[in-house]
Structures are given as structure tokens and as C-alpha cells.
Amino acid sequence: MQGDHGAFAELASGALGRLYGTAGLILGEEAAASDAVQAALVRAWRDLPTLRDPVRFDGWLYRLLVNACRDEARGRQRRRQREIPLDDFDRPMPTVAERELADRDELDRAFDRLTDDQRAIIGLVFYRDLTLPQAAQALGTPLGTAKSRLHRALDALRAALAAERRADPAEELQA
How many CB atoms are closer than 10 A to CB 72? Predict the structure, then answer.
């Protein structure tokens, strides 16, 4: 908090992997996640003297990261591309590994349909294993708001998965 570069580097390096993972979940692109983590760390260095409770450093850093992810997502909204799947009716039945890969791909596409706030709450709770109070703190929202966002995000994820399944008629033929 007093401008020690080495101490800050030690704090940041301990959280770096978690930050990249969380940003990747929220943004879905490695380059965008890297930019968001970099922005969050710059903000953390700049604003560290204003942190009132050093014990809450991790939650504060996650809040900076989520805000940086929001900023990054706003900047890339205009550049977003969509894939158009081509029907392939002559393919053989998938192997277990291919099915697992297809399930993961389906989940990723459904996850991409969520808003940044929805991806953030799901990412923090289910991928980073934060408790709801910790996720609420990281997002800078009251606990009740975090609970309702999680509920709505899970509903939206279920709806997106259902829409993915409806959009892929070959899926039903193989099931």
C-alpha cells in the first residue's frame, strides 16, 4: 500500500492464475481476458492506497477484474462474430470423447449467450468456488442481488441450452 513494487508483484502473482481463469470464463476469449486482467492489475496498483481493509484484497481485486471485463466486453460488442453451423447428415455416431467435446462446445455456446453479469456470477460461484457472499463482494453488489442474479443466470443458461438443442436437429437424431 506504500508503493513497494516487489510486495505488489508478490500479491498479484499469487492471484494471476485465478484472474486469468475468471476473465476467460466471463469474456470467452484469451486475448480479451488478458487485456482485462492487465487493466485490473493496473487499476489495483493505482488504487491500492485507497483499499481500507487489506484483508479483503482478493474480493477487491475480483471486483476490479469484473469491472475490467465489463469494459472489455463493451469494447468488443461491435466486433462479435457468429458461426453458422452446416448440416452434416452422413457423419457416424460419435465416440464418448467426441460426445464430451460436443457437450462442452454446446455449454460454451450457451454460456456465450449470457450477459457479462450472468457469466460473472456463474463463473465466480461455480468455476472459482466462491461463496455467494464472496461473489457479491467481488461484484460489488448486495447479497440479495447476487442471489437473484445467480438464479436468473442459471435460468438463462438453461434456456440457452434448450435453444441450442432446438437449433441442432442432428442432436436429437443422435440422442
Answer: 24
Does the pTM surpass 0.90? The reply is no
SS3 119: helix
- Classify residue 25: in a domain, yes or no: yes
Q: Which of 19, 53, 79 is the last residue of a domain?
A: 79
Whole-number percent of the chain with pLDDT over 90: 27
Cβ pair 68, 36 in contact under 8 A:
yes
Residue 95 gets which letter from DSSP?
Answer: P
Identity of residue 5: H
- The parent domain of residue 153 ranges over 96-174
Tens-place pLDDT, residues 117-140 = 899 999 999 988 899 999 999 999
CATH no. for residue 69?
1.10.1740
* Domain shared by 67 and 118, yes or no: no
Mind listing the pLDDT tens digit for each residue in 42-92?
A: 898 888 888 777 777 788 888 899 999 988 888 776 555 555 555 555 566
- Greatest Cα pair distance, the chain, in angstroms, is 65
C-alpha cell at 78: 461491435
Q: Which amino acid is at 68?
A: A
Give the integer Cα–Cα distance in Å for 98 and 55: 45
Q: How many helices (H) and strands (E) does the chain have?
A: 8, 0
